[in-house]
Write a structure and sequence with these properties.
By secondary structure, this protein is an alpha/beta fold. The chain has a domain at 2-192 and 224-252 and 296-313: Rossmann fold (3-Layer(aba) Sandwich). It has 13 helices and twelve strands. The protein has helices at 10-23, 61-71, 85-90, 93-114, 119-124, 157-176, 198-207, 227-240, 257-271, 301-307, 315-328, 330-336, 339-350; strands spanning 2-5, 27-31, 51-55, 75-78, 126-132, 180-185, 187-189, 212-215, 221-226, 246-249, 254-256, 283-286. Strands 3-2-1-4-5-6-10 form a seven-stranded parallel beta sheet, sandwiched between helices. The chain has a three-stranded mixed beta sheet with strand order 7-9-11. The structure holds nicotinamide-adenine-dinucleotide and 2'deoxy-thymidine-5'-diphospho-alpha-D-glucose (DAU).
Length: 353
């Protein structure tokens, strides 16, 4: 079996569901259930004997030790993190704690556990660290996309905390021989993404007739990957990645934010027309994110060449599926839009008008 951390969040939940469907191998999911963690994401596994949920914090060493001893996983897939850049600007402390101290705690627990293993079990054990393209910093308009060999130049507290965790993972391999793998992926979108991130926020706001906030001039560029493709890439790395290596994962799909928002508006015009007019009328330019990285782009040739992974979805197919999912799961959106979510909106957007 494998131990997943952060499996009740957006990518983690998609990963656990896809993993069980693709492999049938049991999963223990350790998740603290912060505002971003939602057991409802895994409701489809309620009667699945191969799925075990444990509510807990990756910073609690005794808990992690006990889980490793009890369940004896062959791998750890580490997703748990504070993940939203704007929140890291308003309050970086939790990012330092979970992303850096939490990863350190997991690495130490994994090292102690791995040292108890022998033979094939020791050879086959893997610690897979799920990281981000944001660790590489920001690209100019004509720079080549990020390769695994690019220097890390993180610019936000979130990116810095993820870069620090990448460095810890690297050092635990180099110094102690822990069999690690690291993935650095671009922007994901798809089902179960918390509506603080651009795509689900725009869908939710549009359906509520609220402004669609665009930071700055809307020309910041991201590379977008459908979450199911990210999950498939992680499975490929876990199964066949070279120990100690880093793999960049991306969709070859760079787009400015304004294009993303207009695409969503056009899909909503088609799937759920608003009698008040076209959704684009709601687009509102607001004050920029401090230190806003201008462009991310991923060179994914290494994972394609070495592991044969390629994205199955184009942006056109993935975004259509995603908009449809949010239209069909408005209850899910309503549940996560709790009091705490509304406080966040007031805090982040109140000052941007
Ligand atoms: P998310 O914020 O949706 O989910 C994070 C999950 O981690 C939540 O379930 C939360 O409860 C859990 N968690 C937080 N702190 C914890 C702690 N101390 N102990 C245990 N659980 C804890 O995040 P996401 O978007 O699903 O991202 C998952 C991972 O993928 C993160 O490591 C992120 O850096 C990375 N990543 C995300 C993207 C993206 O576009 N979302 C892209 C590349 C990489
Ligand atoms: O690149 C990978 C990263 O992608 C992940 O590591 C992060 O966990 C994930 O949150 C994401 O970071 P971004 O900052 O790129 O994602 P976000 O959805 O917050 O913003 C996408 C772009 O849209 C970014 O340029 C900021 C802009 N934006 C965002 C929001 C929330 C807006 O213009 N308006 C908004 O209201």
């Amino acid at each position: 079996m494998i131990l997943v951390t952060g499996g009740a969040g957006f990518i983690g939940a998609n990963f656990v569901i896809d993993w069980l469907a693709a492999t049938g191998e049991p999963v223990v999911n350790l998740d603290k259930l912060t505002y971003a963690g939602n057991p409802e994401n895994l409701a489809s596994l309620a009667n699945n004997a191969r799925y075990i949920f444990v509510k807990g914090d990756i910073c609690e060493r005794a808990l992690v030790d006990a889980l490793l001893t009890r369940h004896h996983p062959r791998a750890i897939a580490h997703f748990a993190a504070e993940s939203h850049v704007d929140r890291s600007i308003h309050g970086p402390a939790e990012f330092i704690r979970t992303n850096i101290e939490g990863t350190f705690t997991l690495l130490e627990a994994a090292r102690a556990y791995w040292n108890t293993l022998t033979g094939e079990q020791r050879d086959d054990f893997r610690f897979l660290h799920v990281s981000t393209d944001e660790v590489y910093g920001s690209l100019g308009p004509h720079d080549p996309p990020f390769a695994e060999t690019n220097p890390q130049q993180p610019n936000s507290p979130y990116a810095a905390s993820k870069a620090a965790s990448d460095h810890l993972v690297r050092a635990w391999h180099h110094t102690y021989g822990l069999p690690v793998l690291t993935t650095n992926c671009s922007n994901n979108y798809g089902p179960f993404q918390f509506p603080e991130k651009l795509i689900p926020l725009v869908i939710a706001n549009a359906l509520a007739g609220k402004p669609l906030p665009i930071y700055g001039d809307g020309m910041n560029v991201r590379d977008w990957l459908y979450v199911g493709d990210h999950c498939a890439a992680i499975r490929a790395v876990l199964n066949a990645g070279q120990v100690g290596e880093t793999y960049n994962i991306g969709g070859w799909n760079e787009m400015p934010n304004l294009t993303i928002v207009k695409t969503i508006c056009a899909l909503l015009d088609e799937m759920k027309p608003d009698p008040a007019g076209r959704y684009e009328r709601l687009i509102t330019f607001v004050a920029d994110r401090p230190g806003h990285d201008r462009r991310y782009a991923i060179d994914a040739r290494k994972i394609e060449r070495e592991l044969g992974w390629r994205p199955a979805e184009t942006f056109a197919t993935g975004i259509r599926k995603t908009v449809r999912w949010y239209l069909e799961h408005q209850d899910w959106v309503a549940h996560v839009q709790s009091g705490a979510y509304r406080e966040w909106l007031a805090r982040n957007y109140g000052a941007r008008q």
